[in-house]
Input
Amino acid sequence: MKILLASSEVHPYSKTGGLADMVGALGKALAVAGHEAAIVTPLYRGLREKFPEMRHVDWYLNLPMGQRMVTAQLWMLVPQPGLVIYFVDQPAYFDRAGIYHEDNISYLDNAERYVFFSKCVAHLARYLPWQSDLVHVHDWQVGLVPPLMLQQQREGWVKPPPTCLTIHNLAYQGVFAPEAFALTNLPEEFFGVEGVEYYGQLNCLKAGIAFADRITTVSPRYAREITTEEFGCGLDGFLRNRQGRLTGILNGVDYGDWTTTKNRFLKASYSASSIRGKERNKLELQREMGLPADRKIPLFGTVSRLAEQKGVDIQLGALEEMLYTGLQFVLLGSGSPVFERAYVDLARRFPLQVAVRIGFNEGLSHRIEAGCDFYLMPSQFEPCGLNQMYSLRYGTIPIVRAVGGLDDSVVDYIANAELADGIKFREYSAVALAKGIRKALALYQEPNLLRHYRRNAMAVDFSWERTVEDYLRVYRSALGMVTPVKA
Ligand code: ADP
Ligand code: GLC
Output
């Protein structure tokens, strides 16, 4: 099959979170499985310098944005056979210091930037000589692609391919003032309750939900959760009406990148059968973070966007309660300044036990995954979550709240003692998380049991081969090749 993917971030070109990992890996996996994939993404600052092999495509986009015309150029890169990345080059929109924001303030023209990007995607879907069988868009930034394609059909595009929208996070919907709707140049009738309108505003994600032929989200449990009021972020009713088109597919892991052997970011290699290197990575990490290097001290870690979603408040509370035990904790993250300050403050108060790095650092994220004994992920909600899956592969036992993809990917002792590979708790509270940490400390005292958990964890296989089959099934159903699948 020929699949056109579109996303506002794609690893290794741009990344603020798991969206980039997922789309980059899906493109690769489709190509490896013998299909053809193209990914359209913006050309952000510095990319041409970082990837000098990028080629200019003799193709100019000139598209209406309300009353004016905006032009863009196109660049391409072929990272592997069967996969092409197209970069939309519009310097005024994308040659900026940040992707979505600077100094924690969202760019004021984000609606305009991603309406334009969505138009480029719809335009390329129609006019690229390489004609795709299906267009697969990701998150709100490209949510307008399905209605834009529908409108093109009404204006004479004879047979547009079907569309699939993947919701990576329902909490981010791309909601903008109604005036932004004019930028889409869509007829007024699209701005209704069954369309892109949401309480009088433009909702880009709802646009995709309303008009995509298939909707997927990134874990089976999250697919069920988002149809409930608790997790539906105001769109649960709208999603319930489309439940027949909605499927949950757990993300895969790119084990080429996330490996404990031959990993350029790690000092020592290790594997399930030869675990010694893990201890060396632990000591190195303790040193790198400025903590006492001692293999006997249980080391907990987190790598995360610092947003409410990630359970920052209960994590801070639980750590306050548990630090008396002598455990160490390392954090790499960035996000809300209030949360950043709270962690920095904790590290200041417990300098021998807590170390914090604010910022984005790919190498350190691998070293934390590899060096820690336990990984903390107490999310309020989690569509899929990748770090708990990386932790499992790195033999770092995840402590997770049983929601969304966290529940789908971690097995705890109560559910299955034989296959246990992590610790789960249900209630969203610091007390419940502290109890999880206590269980981890008890596990740490039982080397044989800990070894059993580690072996299970490192053996779990979330590779893309299976995941890609699930997506192909959805694509085929959209093409009418098989009957729809349900969540
Ligand atoms: P989300 O997409 O909601 O942020 P995921 O668990 O799906 O959560 O994916 C997060 C991804 O971003 C992981 O690859 C993680 O390692 C990475 N990441 C998050 N924060 C940082 C950071 N400060 N530095 C480096 N990588 C980070
Ligand atoms: C989102 C979600 C996260 C998921 C990622 C990739 O950022 O918050 O849970 O893993 O997308 O699908």
